Structure formats: C-alpha cells, structure tokens
Amino acid sequence: MSVTEERLVGGYSGRLLLAISVGWAFIQAGRLVVSPLLPEISGQFGLSPTEEGLTVTTIWFVYACLQYPSGRLSDVLTRTTLLVAGLCVIAVGFLVFAGAPTYLVVLVGAVLVGFGAGLYPTPARGLVSDLYVERRGQAFGLHTASGDVGGVIAAGLAVATLAVASWRGAFLPVAVVLLSVALALHVWSREGYHVESVDLEVRATARRLLGDPGTRRLILAYALYAFTWQAATGLLPTFLRRSKSFSPAIATASFGTLFVVGAVVKPVAGGLGDRVRRDRLAPAALLLAAVALTGVVLASSELAVTVGVVVFAAGLMSYPPVMQAYLMDTFPTESMAGDLGGMRSLYIGLGSLGPTAVGFVAGRADYAVAFAGLAGCLLVAVALILTGE
C-alpha cells in the first residue's frame, strides 16, 4: 500500500481509522471518568482506599486478561468481529455500573467494562497495522492520541455530571456513542463477520515472547510503565485532593491536563519515532516522566504541581506510540496481533495492580509516598530498556 493510499483522513483507511479511534476515545472516557468520580462513588458506598483502588484494578485486570485472546482471535477471524462485539459488551457494562445499587454490583459492572474493553484495542491496533505500513508511526500516534481525547472528555463529563446530577449520569452518553461506533463499523468495514473455533496457540506465543531475554526485559519495562499509568490515571485526582489540598474542580482539571497533553504529544512522538531510533526515544520519554513526577510529589505550590503534571504527561504519553510501533516491527506478520495481545495481557495484567498497590500504601502511609514509588518504577523501566539492548 502506497503513502497516497494510506490516507489518514478520508478514503477507506481514513474512515476506519476515524471509527476505531472514536471508539477508543469513548472507551477511555467511560473508564477514566471513574477516576475523578471515585471520591463520590466511595462516599456513597463507604469504600476504603484499598477498595477504591480495587474498583479500578478490576476493570484493568479483566481488560488485561482479554488482550491475548482478542488479538489471536482477530488474527484468525476478522478484526470487525472482535471490535463490534467489544463495543456492545462494554456499553452494557457501563449501564450496569451506572445503575449499581451496591458496591458488589459496581464490581460486576467493572468486570463487564473490562471484558468489553479487553476485546477492543488489540484488534484495533492490528487493523491500524493492516491499513498502514509506511505511515504506521503516524497512524499509531493518531489512534493512541484518541485515547487521550477520551481522557479530556472524561474530565469534562465529570465536571458536568457533578454540577447537574449524580456520578451515575456520566455513563449513558458514553454507551450511546459506543453503540453508534459499532453501527458505523458494521456499515463501513469490508471484512464482515466470521466465527469459528480457534486454537489460541498459547504455548507457541509464550515461547516467542518469553524465550528471548530482550523481549522479557521489554515486557517487564512495559509492565512498570503500565503500573504507573494505571495508578496515576486512576488515583491522580484523589492524590491531588487529599495530599495537595486541591479543590475537586482543580484536581479534575489537572487530571484532564494529562490527556490534553497526551493528545498533542502522541502524534508528534509517533512521527518522530518514524525518523529516529525508537529504542532510544522510548526510555528518554520515561526518564522525563520520572523526573517530573518526582517534582509533583515534592512541590508545594499549586502552580508548581500543575507544571509538573504537564511535563509528567508529556513524558508518559510519548511512550506508547513509540514502543507499540517498535513492537509491531519485530513481531511476525502472521501472528502480529496475537503476539501484541499476549504481551499486552502480561504487562497490563501486572500493571493493573498499580491502583490497588497505591491505595494500599496510601492507606498505611500517604499518597505522596505512594506516588514517589511510581517515579521509582519508571526509573527501573528506563534501566531495563537500556540494559536490554
């Protein structure tokens, strides 16, 4: 496929990139809006800090478990089959979450959200790789940036919902948009649907991923990144409100800043990764994030904390498009989505423990100590990437 045919806007490739990116944006919006609403959810159900973290961890852990099966299935079936199914399941999950009368039902909704979300991103990234070769870094940058647009939407939803309704009102518009994207993919995709029994080839994939020491180091480094990302996005507003005495509005705005910055830097980082060595650019991004997060923990003024959050976001959000394009370059074409899914299951599964771990440490010490530990995780990840070359 030529650069001309690999259209980022318009044409068949551009339409599908738009659809899957809007879907990813609103999946992220629905999951991430839980974070700024968590103090209100906690207040209604009387949750401890560990239970607050467990709510976020449940979504991410189930999501992680589905990464490999969804990738392998989309290699054998069709990307559209997995994408449409995931959008429908997660829409139902958000509705259950919103209507939950007890904390146990909140967790049931979280499981459904994690399940539906888990079916989606690996086939979506597989589809991006199917559609783009020469402009793959740019396409990944735009697609992953859509998730950060979702974070901005989440912050806006949280502010609007708390101003006019209870926390439950944030999830209905998300479900409506996701079902609309499922319809768009049904109409636009040329793939159609295909269902059959599939050998997941778990052992073969595990050998490819875990048999090479360099790949094992990358998995561990990405797990530490995911641990930090999930903890930070899940509990940053709570940290700012309880440790820095930010108002709910300012804490939510700072949370939204993560994703405003991400939406800008991800396409830039993805394009830069097409021109320079990705294995150098990725650790540089993590190092910047670690230094900035240390500054956030140590800073006392509202301005200094806000600047630190912006720089932290720039480093943290530059990493995924660079590293994911690098990984796609190294995986065999015939098992590309399955291998990415297997790796995502490992690093997101390990990373899903981040919110619970931070909640646990915060409950026994404070949030500043917990977030300082996240900066240490990023520094270890940098060392793993650089020493694994």
UniProtKB/TrEMBL annotation:
Transmembrane segments: 12-33, 76-97, 103-120, 140-164, 170-188, 218-240, 246-269, 281-299, 305-323, 344-362, 368-387
Record keywords, A-Z: Cell membrane, Membrane, Transmembrane, Transmembrane helix
Coiled coil: none
GO molecular function: transmembrane transporter activity
GO cellular component, one term: plasma membrane
Pfam families xrefs: MFS_1 (PF07690)
Listed InterPro entries: MFS, MFS_dom, MFS_Efflux_Transporters, MFS_trans_sf
Domain of life of the source: Archaea
Major facilitator superfamily (MFS) profile domain sequence ranges: 16-389
Bilayer topology annotation: Multi-pass membrane protein
Localization in the cell: Cell membrane
Entries under PANTHER family matching the protein: CHLORAMPHENICOL EFFLUX PUMP RV0191, PURINE EFFLUX PUMP PBUE
Entry protein name: MFS transporter
Source lineage: Archaea, Methanobacteriati, Methanobacteriota, Stenosarchaea group, Halobacteria
